Amino acid sequence: MSLGRTYLRRNGRWESRLSLGRLNGKRQSKSFYGSSREEAESKLIAAVLGNASVAETEMTVKELCDEWLSVSSHRVKLSTLANYRMKIEKHIIPQFGDMTCCEVTSKMAYSFMEKKLRAYLNEHNAPILLGITLALAMGLRFGEVCGLMRSDIDLKKRILTVNRSHSGVVRETQNDRQRFSQHFGAVAVKGQEHYL
Fold first, then answer.
1. Angle between helices 106-123 and 130-138 (to 10 degrees)
2. Which band of pLDDT confidence, cut at 50, 70 and 90, is reported for residue 183?
């Protein structure tokens, strides 16, 4: 069970809601507000920790990556470790290496990942990348992309309907209550019609 959730309210403020369980059959919760997601979540975390102060580290992202690689070397194969090291040195260190771990926000990390993925997709225009484009542009899960069929796509109405999801080797079909549709975004359709 998670402690709570954080979301943007209609008034522009962020709310982190801490679940306190049930009392007399009713859900109990406590809300913490902030002008940013981080502020609201830090208030929630402070309440959970009993307002104990959490020391911020001065460790840089590069130092953390080096430590993580050192720890990982005991549990992964040498080839896997080399792959991790290459990806860290090529992608993470140039972008975040000199920053302290506390300076890196989730927004920065997601923005970085999206930028890298979009750059890759722009450089490599191949039919097989359509699934990645759909996942990125429409928020589809891997299993939902794998479950798509031509009949799920209506180019005239610009609607994609997810009727099934695949999970590993086992084929799963979602029931009618879980079906949903999403409208195509320009990114997902532009130049991709002939692949569908």
1. 150
2. very low
- How far apart CA 78 and CA 7 sit, in angstroms, is 42
The type of residue at 73 is S
Cα-only R_g, the chain: 22
Q: Which helix (DSSP H) or strand (DSSP E) does residue 133 occupy? A: helix 130-138
CB under 8 Å to 180, separation ≥6 — which residues?
A: 161, 162
Q: What is the pLDDT of residues 48-106, one digit of tens each?
A: 777 445 567 788 999 999 999 998 888 889 999 999 999 999 999 999 999 998 899 88
Query: Residue 86 corresponds to which amino acid?
Result: M
- Under 8 Å between Cβ of 174 and 143: no
Both tokens of 154, joined, read 């209506």
Question: With contact defined as beta carbons under 8 Å apart, do 117 and 132 qualify?
Answer: yes
Q: CA-CA distances (angstroms) from residue 111 to 5, 34, 36, 115? A: 21, 22, 17, 6
Domain ranges of the chain: 4-48, 61-104, 122-195
Specify the DSSP element, H or E, that contains 63.
Answer: helix 61-72
Q: Which two tokens mark 138?
A: 């429409």
